[in-house]
Design brief:
It is built from 6 helices and no strands. It is mainly alpha-helical and 141 residues long. The longest helix is centred in the middle third of the chain and has 25 residues.
Length: 141
């Protein structure tokens, strides 16, 4: 399957795109809620493959889509007392937030410097490593 500037998404603009967006968003939202994540690891590939969007734009769209998902997740976890874990891991949490803000600011300045193919390769490697670590973790239990 060729992607990006070579071809468009899997659906022509119109009602099929809307239906694909709602269905994929529904399932990504379920997975995100079950795993306690924002869903970006699924959103970016879905946006690129289904809708043929450039990976840089897909990353930005994934942040915008993840925001409401995170708000719903926060409200759900607050009611379930799951934030007790964050209190125990406060130093890690604080340093990760600081690092993420600095990284996002620097990444925003560098956005035009990295070719799309390099970013796609890097994202693919990160997702592959994450998948391997996840499968190894589940087999140990």
């Amino acid at each position: 399957l060729t992607l990006h500037s070579i071809s468009g998404g899997l659906f022509q603009p119109g009602i099929a795109t809307i239906i694909a967006g709602v269905i994929s968003g529904f399932f990504i939202g379920i997975v995100a809620a079950l795993l306690g994540v924002a869903g970006g690891e699924l959103l970016i590939p879905t946006i690129v493959i289904l809708f043929g969007v450039d990976i840089k734009l897909a990353g930005s769209l994934s942040l915008m889509i993840s925001l409401p998902t995170m708000i719903v997740g926060f409200s759900r976890y607050t009611n379930a007392d799951a934030f007790q874990i964050l209190k125990k891991e406060r130093p890690l949490f604080v340093w990760m937030v600081i690092g993420s803000v600095i990284g996002a600011a620097i990444g925003g300045l560098l956005v035009g410097l990295f070719p799309v193919k390099v970013l796609m390769t890097l994202l693919g490697v990160i997702l592959l490593i994450s998948a391997i670590k996840t499968f190894k973790h589940t087999r140990q239990k």
